[in-house]
Design brief:
With 174 residues, the chain is an alpha+beta fold. It has 7 helices and 6 strands. Helix 4 packs across helix 5 and helix 5 packs across helix 6.
């Protein structure tokens, strides 16, 4: 698996957020480090396919992600810096909904995966609580869990430990 960013520029009106970026990612874990406003979140949105570059291409195994459309997006697990929740959904319903959008698995498989992720992120006891009642740390853990729903082969997590207490940060890293 390889992602290649070839000459990508992203402009917002008069602001150039990224200018002629060339990178290659192979299987592994990568981190983007830079000051606020450096374009890290913009790059992640482009990689997730939620925005398009002003120029240049992003290739996954040699294929332009803009042309792959949903077949690429189904393989992405994405947690933006600020993730929105449906406030009238429970945590379990939220994960199942994301699973239905992203996956071609059966409803039973999606439900089982949602329960496993709720267990993994220590949210099982809050599975049937409306997400509007979740604390910041609970929302963050649920956000990471939703990124893992479906058949994600690529995870893009923008500040995944923001809002987690020190013990939760260690648990997540492990």
């Amino acid at each position: 698996m390889r992602i290649k960013i070839a000459g990508v520029t992203k402009k917002y009106h008069n602001l150039t957020a990224l200018n002629n970026v060339n990178l290659e990612f192979h299987k592994g874990i990568y981190g983007l480090i830079g000051p606020n406003g450096a374009g890290k979140s913009t790059l992640m949105r482009l990689l997730a396919g939620s925005e398009k570059p002003s120029s240049g291409k992003i290739l996954w195994d040699g294929k332009d992600i803009a042309k792959l459309g949903d077949s690429y997006k189904r393989r992405i697990g994405y947690l933006p810096q600020e993730f929105g929740f449906y406030k009238e959904f429970t945590g379990y319903e939220m994960l199942c909904y994301i699973g239905l959008l992203k996956s071609r698995k059966s409803v039973g498989d999606i439900r089982r995966q949602a329960k496993r992720l709720l267990d993994l992120f220590e949210l099982s006891d809050k599975a049937n609580v409306m997400t509007r009642k979740y604390s910041g740390g609970m929302k963050q853990r649920l956000g990471i869990a939703q990124a893992l729903m479906g058949d994600s082969r690529i995870l893009i997590l923008d500040e995944p430990t923001a809002g987690l207490d020190p013990m939760q940060r260690i648990y997540l890293k492990n």
